[in-house]
Amino acid sequence: MTRIANDPDTFVDDALEGFAAAHADAVRRVDGGVVRATSLAPGSVAVVVGGGSGHYPAFAGVVGPGMAAGAVCGNIFTSPSAGQAYRVARAADAGGGVLFLFGNYAGDVLHFGDAQDRLRAEGVDARTVLITDDIASAPIAERARRRGIAGDFVVFKIAGAAAERGDDIDEVERLARHANERTRTLGVAFGGCTFPGADAPLFTVPEGMMSIGLGIHGEPGIRDVPRTSSRELARMLVGDLLHDVPETRGDRAVVIVNGLGSVSHEELFVLFRDVSVELRAAGVTVVQPEVGDLVTSLDMAGASVTLVWLDDELELLWAAAADTPAYRKGAAVPAPSSRAVAAPIESPPAAPPRPVATPDDRRRAEYAQGLLRAAQDVITAAAADLGALDAVAGDGDHGVGMRAGVDAAVAAFDPEVGLRGALTAAADAWSERAGGTSGALWATALRRLASELPSADERSSVTPAELASAVGAAVDAVAERGGAVIGDKTMLDAMRPYADALRAGATADVGIRPLLTDAARAATAAAEATAGLRPAKGRARPLAERSLGHPDPGATSFALIATAVARHLEQNA
Ligand code: ADP
Ligand code: MG
């Protein structure tokens, strides 16, 4: 429950501003996140971390000598946008390349991936290592699909120490991967967390129970078991962790007992005590442990245990000094150089002269603007329900993300530049403001729609066949970008039947209004039918069973928009 806030919509910015002001000697606010206030040694690797907000001290709190060079800060539990990641990386870059480190979530992969492409195109050696420490989120044979939780901190620390001592980007990347390979986490939740402004938690754990395998976005655990003593809990967590180890395990491990937001440190120490006993009994030597809140989930009541199986090179880097707002270790890091702060943020390129549309093209654009506004209205009305649906097995942010995206798209949509230009600007704005998987994919869809629609010509309308073909291409683009197939329980399961219905109707030459109404019906039925599917993609995948019986949030919001668009046309016939 958030007790101190202004407007929930400005919570993230307000908190980040306060954080930067409180740590003005350590960090500098840039558009999209923070970077160190002091410069990196010229030519060194910039380790740039990030993800959604709500996880403090991840991610802004670990920026400083010996750890990250910058942190990209998205909305609560929502991946930052590609633009944010790009700008923070630019500001952090010291000439030695940029290494992005973040937990393995679809939205982050899409947005950071775009930023990486953009940096590379500009000659910056940008790389990525995904963090996949959560053993509850996929079996060991599918380690690459696991999500990143408290192990984020470990990989940041190891890579940050390597960058600090002057390793080049090949080496920093290798060590980050190596650290991730040898880091495993398992957690437990006793109670859910509440978004700023919300009056109920994202999920609840039944009285007297605890939920093993929690995520850090309020995703509930994968199995509920009766609450036990700390000793029993330690036995359970350590038991599972000892069954999920790297091939060459060794017998020295860092142990992290991490609080998720509202468990007292004394309780964490009790758990650490019992975890140590279990590990000692298993012949494991505990090395330089950490107990505290390192990667949180708003005010979630929960804790996790991370084991980092050490070898000599990891142990050396783990022991290295660090000096960040939220985490200090060892002797002070050498005083920062007085050199001016690294690469300044690029000022946005001057806006190109705005093309003025022909009157016909402007009319097409105004028509589309009406449809986009209809989408905005339905999303505004449904945002809370979409959030609740996403909280069943995902992270509860789908309503917030869709609303931020469509609001930004409406604001950016300018009919004066014509249909394609206005749609492209709306797509960029959607991605930039919404972040998240759905933000990236909706932007992809709108961008492709814009490029596939016939260019401005002397006609003020689009034919059903042109529309069907453009929508089909947009859906292909979503499939390609997100890598999902039909049946994976994603928005694609509603989008594909919609596109198919449009194509079939266009061939049969029904008018555009009945065509869109029929297609919307097909999308709605398909979205409802996703209730019977198990998710194979995205944040809901680790909680597939829980998702059964509930439709997919992204498919549902798509069907709502399709229906609103059709209704708008019927009403404005
Ligand atoms: P996030 O998953 O980043 O929190 P949202 O909650 O806004 O983003 O969106 C979740 C929706 O995104 C899911 O309900 C699903 O429809 C869609 N989705 C997730 N992964 C994919 C994918 N790989 N391809 C297509 N759609 C996806
Ligand atoms: Mg979500």
TrEMBL record:
<dbReference type="GO" id="GO:0004371">
    <property type="term" value="F:glycerone kinase activity"/>
</dbReference>
<dbReference type="InterPro" id="IPR004007">
    <property type="entry name" value="DhaL_dom"/>
</dbReference>
<keyword id="KW-0547">Nucleotide-binding</keyword>
<dbReference type="GO" id="GO:0005524">
    <property type="term" value="F:ATP binding"/>
</dbReference>
<dbReference type="GO" id="GO:0005829">
    <property type="term" value="C:cytosol"/>
</dbReference>
<protein>
    <submittedName>
        <fullName>Dihydroxyacetone kinase</fullName>
    </submittedName>
</protein>
<dbReference type="InterPro" id="IPR036117">
    <property type="entry name" value="DhaL_dom_sf"/>
</dbReference>
<dbReference type="Pfam" id="PF02733">
    <property type="entry name" value="Dak1"/>
</dbReference>
<feature type="domain" description="DhaK">
    <location>
        <begin position="7"/>
        <end position="327"/>
    </location>
</feature>
<keyword id="KW-0067">ATP-binding</keyword>
<dbReference type="Pfam" id="PF02734">
    <property type="entry name" value="Dak2"/>
</dbReference>
<feature type="region of interest" description="Disordered">
    <location>
        <begin position="528"/>
        <end position="549"/>
    </location>
</feature>
<feature type="domain" description="DhaL">
    <location>
        <begin position="366"/>
        <end position="567"/>
    </location>
</feature>
<dbReference type="GO" id="GO:0006796">
    <property type="term" value="P:phosphate-containing compound metabolic process"/>
</dbReference>
<dbReference type="GO" id="GO:0019563">
    <property type="term" value="P:glycerol catabolic process"/>
</dbReference>
<dbReference type="InterPro" id="IPR050861">
    <property type="entry name" value="Dihydroxyacetone_Kinase"/>
</dbReference>
<keyword id="KW-0418">Kinase</keyword>
<keyword id="KW-0808">Transferase</keyword>
<dbReference type="InterPro" id="IPR004006">
    <property type="entry name" value="DhaK_dom"/>
</dbReference>
<feature type="compositionally biased region" description="Pro residues">
    <location>
        <begin position="346"/>
        <end position="356"/>
    </location>
</feature>
<feature type="region of interest" description="Disordered">
    <location>
        <begin position="339"/>
        <end position="362"/>
    </location>
</feature>
